[in-house]
Design a protein that fits this description.
Number of strands: 8
Order of helices and strands: HEEEEEEEE
Number of helices: 1
Shape: elongated
Number of domains: 1
Structural class: mainly beta
Helix content: 10-25%
Largest sheet: 4 strands, antiparallel
Radius of gyration: 24 Å
CATH topology: Tick-borne Encephalitis virus Glycoprotein, domain 1
Strand content: 35-45%
Strand order of the largest sheet: 1-8-7-6
Length: 137
Amino acid sequence: MTYLIHAIAAASLLAGCASAPVAATAKDQPMKTVTLQPERTVAVGPASELRYDGVEDSRCPPGVQCIRAGELAYKFTLTSAAGKELFGLTAAKPAFDASGVAGLTIALGANPEPKVQPANAPAPAPAHPVTINITQK
């Protein structure tokens, strides 16, 4: 008899936990992760797009003594009905909250650290792809 009471109690608890999940609201859009090559564009919402303009690499080349370490800065242009916003993402500032598109945040994803070009490198620096996470609140 005790076994039957415990079984009914357990079934009641499980039935209570099995209720329908809460529906996501319009402001809880899922995160979108994309990898872009320089000069490529991705849609980030209705009538708005993000362009990856390229990378500025001011890091100190190997074998050179520098006063400042420098940084790797990924440059973007966000175009929307509100106009254009130019911004950069770095390790020190890995996210950007758009002012022209309410609730839009663009953040650096998992990006391998590219090698620093030697000071005497004859070839141009290789293109750095970038992975970003786009969220809409």
